[in-house]
Batch of 2 targets.
Target 1
Amino acid sequence: MTEFKSNTVDIQKPASEIYHFLNNFNNFEKLLPDQVINWQVSDDTCSFTIKGMADLALKMGTNRPNNSISYQSITPSPFDFSLDFDLTEKESGTLVQSQLSAQLNPMLKMMASRPLQNFVNLLVEKLKEILEQKA
Protein backbone atom coordinates (compact mmCIF):
# COMPACT_ATOMS: atom_id res chain seq x y z
CA MET A 1 0.00 0.00 0.00
CA THR A 2 1.36 3.40 -1.02
CA GLU A 3 0.39 6.37 1.16
CA PHE A 4 0.25 10.05 0.30
CA LYS A 5 -0.27 12.48 3.20
CA SER A 6 -1.19 16.10 2.68
CA ASN A 7 0.20 19.06 4.50
CA THR A 8 -1.71 19.74 7.71
CA VAL A 9 -3.85 22.86 7.48
CA ASP A 10 -5.34 24.88 10.32
CA ILE A 11 -8.96 25.75 9.52
CA GLN A 12 -10.62 28.34 11.71
CA LYS A 13 -13.83 26.33 12.07
CA PRO A 14 -15.01 23.70 14.57
CA ALA A 15 -14.47 20.04 13.67
CA SER A 16 -18.24 19.48 13.58
CA GLU A 17 -18.65 21.99 10.71
CA ILE A 18 -15.78 20.45 8.73
CA TYR A 19 -17.10 16.94 9.33
CA HIS A 20 -20.59 17.96 8.17
CA PHE A 21 -19.15 19.52 4.99
CA LEU A 22 -17.02 16.45 4.13
CA ASN A 23 -19.81 14.00 4.96
CA ASN A 24 -21.84 15.31 1.99
CA PHE A 25 -20.62 14.22 -1.46
CA ASN A 26 -22.28 17.30 -2.99
CA ASN A 27 -19.65 19.37 -1.17
CA PHE A 28 -16.78 17.06 -2.16
CA GLU A 29 -17.08 18.18 -5.79
CA LYS A 30 -16.05 21.71 -4.72
CA LEU A 31 -12.67 20.37 -3.57
CA LEU A 32 -11.77 18.67 -6.84
CA PRO A 33 -9.44 20.09 -9.49
CA ASP A 34 -10.69 21.71 -12.71
CA GLN A 35 -9.74 18.60 -14.73
CA VAL A 36 -12.68 16.70 -13.20
CA ILE A 37 -15.63 16.08 -15.54
CA ASN A 38 -18.72 13.82 -15.59
CA TRP A 39 -19.49 14.41 -11.90
CA GLN A 40 -22.31 12.22 -10.59
CA VAL A 41 -23.47 11.94 -6.99
CA SER A 42 -25.94 10.03 -4.85
CA ASP A 43 -26.39 10.00 -1.07
CA ASP A 44 -23.40 7.76 -0.36
CA THR A 45 -21.45 7.50 -3.65
CA CYS A 46 -19.92 9.72 -6.30
CA SER A 47 -18.16 9.14 -9.59
CA PHE A 48 -16.17 11.36 -11.90
CA THR A 49 -13.54 11.40 -14.62
CA ILE A 50 -10.17 13.08 -14.40
CA LYS A 51 -9.63 14.30 -17.97
CA GLY A 52 -7.05 12.21 -19.79
CA MET A 53 -6.45 9.95 -16.79
CA ALA A 54 -9.13 7.76 -15.23
CA ASP A 55 -12.72 7.21 -14.15
CA LEU A 56 -13.01 7.12 -10.36
CA ALA A 57 -15.83 6.25 -8.00
CA LEU A 58 -16.10 6.55 -4.23
CA LYS A 59 -18.44 5.45 -1.49
CA MET A 60 -18.58 6.58 2.11
CA GLY A 61 -16.39 4.50 4.37
CA THR A 62 -16.27 4.27 8.13
CA ASN A 63 -16.63 7.74 9.62
CA ARG A 64 -16.12 8.96 13.17
CA PRO A 65 -18.18 12.11 13.76
CA ASN A 66 -15.99 15.20 14.21
CA ASN A 67 -12.80 13.06 14.02
CA SER A 68 -12.47 11.45 10.59
CA ILE A 69 -14.10 10.93 7.22
CA SER A 70 -13.21 7.99 5.00
CA TYR A 71 -14.03 7.40 1.35
CA GLN A 72 -13.42 4.03 -0.35
CA SER A 73 -12.92 3.37 -4.06
CA ILE A 74 -15.47 1.32 -5.97
CA THR A 75 -15.73 0.18 -9.60
CA PRO A 76 -14.78 1.66 -12.15
CA SER A 77 -11.70 2.97 -10.29
CA PRO A 78 -8.57 1.51 -11.92
CA PHE A 79 -6.98 0.66 -8.54
CA ASP A 80 -8.14 0.18 -4.96
CA PHE A 81 -7.67 3.18 -2.72
CA SER A 82 -9.04 4.98 0.30
CA LEU A 83 -9.11 8.69 0.98
CA ASP A 84 -9.24 9.81 4.60
CA PHE A 85 -9.53 13.16 6.32
CA ASP A 86 -8.34 13.39 9.93
CA LEU A 87 -9.74 16.23 12.05
CA THR A 88 -8.06 17.38 15.27
CA GLU A 89 -10.00 20.09 17.04
CA LYS A 90 -8.06 22.64 19.03
CA GLU A 91 -9.03 25.76 20.91
CA SER A 92 -9.07 28.12 17.91
CA GLY A 93 -9.98 25.82 15.03
CA THR A 94 -9.27 22.38 13.60
CA LEU A 95 -6.16 20.77 12.13
CA VAL A 96 -7.00 18.81 8.98
CA GLN A 97 -4.89 16.33 7.04
CA SER A 98 -5.90 14.11 4.13
CA GLN A 99 -4.32 10.78 3.26
CA LEU A 100 -4.71 8.66 0.16
CA SER A 101 -3.74 4.98 0.49
CA ALA A 102 -3.55 3.14 -2.82
CA GLN A 103 -2.70 -0.28 -4.23
CA LEU A 104 -0.34 0.79 -7.02
CA ASN A 105 1.88 -1.41 -9.14
CA PRO A 106 5.48 -0.13 -9.46
CA MET A 107 4.91 1.46 -12.88
CA LEU A 108 1.72 3.25 -11.81
CA LYS A 109 3.39 4.35 -8.58
CA MET A 110 6.21 5.95 -10.54
CA MET A 111 3.79 7.77 -12.88
CA ALA A 112 1.14 8.75 -10.33
CA SER A 113 3.12 9.69 -7.20
CA ARG A 114 3.51 13.40 -7.94
CA PRO A 115 -0.10 13.93 -9.16
CA LEU A 116 -1.51 12.04 -6.15
CA GLN A 117 0.64 14.01 -3.69
CA ASN A 118 -0.49 17.25 -5.31
CA PHE A 119 -4.10 16.01 -5.18
CA VAL A 120 -4.15 15.41 -1.40
CA ASN A 121 -2.55 18.81 -0.80
CA LEU A 122 -5.08 20.50 -3.09
CA LEU A 123 -7.99 18.90 -1.22
CA VAL A 124 -7.05 20.37 2.17
CA GLU A 125 -6.08 23.75 0.71
CA LYS A 126 -9.42 24.08 -1.08
CA LEU A 127 -11.26 22.87 2.03
CA LYS A 128 -9.64 25.64 4.08
CA GLU A 129 -10.35 28.24 1.40
CA ILE A 130 -14.03 27.28 1.04
CA LEU A 131 -14.82 26.94 4.75
CA GLU A 132 -13.04 30.11 5.82
CA GLN A 133 -14.89 32.13 3.14
CA LYS A 134 -18.21 31.10 4.68
CA ALA A 135 -19.52 33.72 7.08
Note: Residues 2-133 form a domain with the Alpha-D-Glucose-1,6-Bisphosphate; Chain A, domain 4 fold (CATH 3.30.530.20).
Target 2
Amino acid sequence: MRTIALLQLDDCRHIAAASEAMAQQQHAQVSIALCDGGGHLLLVQRLDGASAASMEVAIAKARMAALNGKATADQEAAINGQRPALLQLAGVFGQPAVAMAGGLPLQVKGQCIGAIGVSGMTPELDGAIAAAGAAVLLTLIP
Protein backbone atom coordinates (compact mmCIF):
# COMPACT_ATOMS: atom_id res chain seq x y z
CA MET A 1 0.00 0.00 0.00
CA ARG A 2 1.19 3.51 -0.68
CA THR A 3 0.31 6.91 0.63
CA ILE A 4 -0.57 9.66 -1.82
CA ALA A 5 -0.88 13.39 -1.41
CA LEU A 6 -4.26 15.05 -1.89
CA LEU A 7 -4.99 18.56 -3.01
CA GLN A 8 -6.81 20.64 -0.45
CA LEU A 9 -8.81 23.78 -1.10
CA ASP A 10 -6.05 26.01 0.30
CA ASP A 11 -3.54 24.38 -2.10
CA CYS A 12 -5.91 25.09 -4.99
CA ARG A 13 -6.22 28.71 -3.91
CA HIS A 14 -2.42 29.16 -3.96
CA ILE A 15 -2.10 27.51 -7.37
CA ALA A 16 -4.97 29.55 -8.82
CA ALA A 17 -3.54 32.77 -7.36
CA ALA A 18 -0.24 32.20 -9.19
CA SER A 19 -2.10 31.56 -12.44
CA GLU A 20 -4.26 34.62 -11.90
CA ALA A 21 -1.19 36.78 -11.28
CA MET A 22 0.35 35.57 -14.54
CA ALA A 23 -2.92 36.19 -16.37
CA GLN A 24 -3.09 39.74 -15.04
CA GLN A 25 0.50 40.42 -16.12
CA GLN A 26 -0.44 39.29 -19.62
CA HIS A 27 -3.80 41.13 -19.60
CA ALA A 28 -5.39 37.73 -20.26
CA GLN A 29 -9.09 37.14 -19.75
CA VAL A 30 -9.19 33.49 -18.77
CA SER A 31 -10.88 30.97 -16.56
CA ILE A 32 -8.83 28.75 -14.25
CA ALA A 33 -10.01 25.36 -12.99
CA LEU A 34 -8.48 22.83 -10.63
CA CYS A 35 -9.62 19.28 -10.10
CA ASP A 36 -8.47 16.30 -8.07
CA GLY A 37 -6.85 13.16 -9.45
CA GLY A 38 -10.26 11.71 -10.29
CA GLY A 39 -11.21 14.71 -12.39
CA HIS A 40 -13.63 16.15 -9.82
CA LEU A 41 -13.79 19.94 -9.75
CA LEU A 42 -12.25 21.57 -6.68
CA LEU A 43 -12.07 25.24 -7.68
CA VAL A 44 -12.92 27.40 -10.65
CA GLN A 45 -12.32 31.11 -11.25
CA ARG A 46 -13.60 33.12 -14.19
CA LEU A 47 -11.54 36.29 -14.36
CA ASP A 48 -13.14 39.58 -15.35
CA GLY A 49 -13.84 39.68 -19.06
CA ALA A 50 -13.44 35.92 -19.59
CA SER A 51 -16.21 34.28 -21.58
CA ALA A 52 -18.65 31.85 -20.03
CA ALA A 53 -17.42 29.22 -22.49
CA SER A 54 -13.85 29.61 -21.20
CA MET A 55 -14.97 28.41 -17.78
CA GLU A 56 -16.48 25.20 -19.15
CA VAL A 57 -13.43 24.56 -21.33
CA ALA A 58 -11.00 25.18 -18.44
CA ILE A 59 -12.85 22.57 -16.38
CA ALA A 60 -12.77 20.10 -19.29
CA LYS A 61 -9.03 20.69 -19.83
CA ALA A 62 -8.28 20.11 -16.14
CA ARG A 63 -10.37 16.94 -16.13
CA MET A 64 -8.59 15.54 -19.20
CA ALA A 65 -5.15 16.28 -17.75
CA ALA A 66 -6.06 14.70 -14.42
CA LEU A 67 -7.61 11.55 -15.84
CA ASN A 68 -4.69 10.98 -18.23
CA GLY A 69 -1.89 12.34 -16.08
CA LYS A 70 -0.61 14.12 -19.20
CA ALA A 71 -0.50 17.66 -20.51
CA THR A 72 -3.41 18.35 -22.81
CA ALA A 73 -1.11 20.08 -25.32
CA ASP A 74 0.70 16.75 -25.79
CA GLN A 75 -2.62 14.98 -26.25
CA GLU A 76 -3.76 17.59 -28.79
CA ALA A 77 -0.51 17.15 -30.73
CA ALA A 78 -0.98 13.37 -30.75
CA ILE A 79 -4.56 13.72 -32.04
CA ASN A 80 -3.39 16.09 -34.78
CA GLY A 81 -0.59 13.67 -35.62
CA GLN A 82 -0.61 9.90 -35.47
CA ARG A 83 -3.25 9.28 -32.78
CA PRO A 84 -6.64 10.65 -33.87
CA ALA A 85 -8.26 7.76 -31.96
CA LEU A 86 -7.52 9.71 -28.76
CA LEU A 87 -10.54 11.86 -29.63
CA GLN A 88 -12.62 9.03 -28.20
CA LEU A 89 -11.30 9.56 -24.66
CA ALA A 90 -13.87 12.21 -23.74
CA GLY A 91 -16.65 9.77 -24.62
CA VAL A 92 -15.05 7.05 -22.52
CA PHE A 93 -14.86 9.38 -19.52
CA GLY A 94 -18.58 10.10 -19.77
CA GLN A 95 -18.06 13.71 -18.74
CA PRO A 96 -16.73 16.83 -20.46
CA ALA A 97 -13.00 16.49 -21.13
CA VAL A 98 -10.99 18.03 -23.95
CA ALA A 99 -7.49 17.57 -25.33
CA MET A 100 -6.72 21.22 -26.02
CA ALA A 101 -3.58 23.00 -24.82
CA GLY A 102 -3.92 24.61 -21.38
CA GLY A 103 -4.35 21.60 -19.08
CA LEU A 104 -1.51 20.31 -16.91
CA PRO A 105 -1.41 17.42 -14.46
CA LEU A 106 -0.28 18.16 -10.92
CA GLN A 107 2.10 15.43 -9.82
CA VAL A 108 3.73 14.55 -6.52
CA LYS A 109 6.29 11.74 -6.42
CA GLY A 110 5.15 10.49 -9.81
CA GLN A 111 1.47 10.36 -8.80
CA CYS A 112 -1.10 12.60 -10.49
CA ILE A 113 -3.03 14.23 -7.64
CA GLY A 114 -5.01 16.61 -9.81
CA ALA A 115 -4.74 19.09 -12.64
CA ILE A 116 -5.10 22.71 -13.64
CA GLY A 117 -6.90 23.90 -16.75
CA VAL A 118 -6.80 27.40 -18.23
CA SER A 119 -8.88 28.65 -21.14
CA GLY A 120 -9.68 31.90 -22.86
CA MET A 121 -6.60 32.97 -24.80
CA THR A 122 -4.19 31.31 -27.26
CA PRO A 123 -3.03 27.74 -26.63
CA GLU A 124 0.45 29.03 -25.77
CA LEU A 125 -0.77 31.65 -23.31
CA ASP A 126 -3.29 29.30 -21.69
CA GLY A 127 -0.45 26.80 -21.23
CA ALA A 128 1.92 29.39 -19.76
CA ILE A 129 -0.71 30.57 -17.27
CA ALA A 130 -1.41 26.97 -16.25
CA ALA A 131 2.34 26.34 -15.87
CA ALA A 132 2.67 29.35 -13.55
CA GLY A 133 0.08 27.82 -11.27
CA ALA A 134 1.46 24.30 -11.51
CA ALA A 135 4.91 25.56 -10.48
CA VAL A 136 3.48 26.58 -7.10
CA LEU A 137 2.73 22.96 -6.26
CA LEU A 138 6.41 22.36 -5.52
CA THR A 139 6.32 25.01 -2.78
CA LEU A 140 3.30 23.35 -1.13
CA ILE A 141 4.84 19.90 -0.66
CA PRO A 142 6.06 19.45 2.92
Note: The chain has one domain: 9-140.
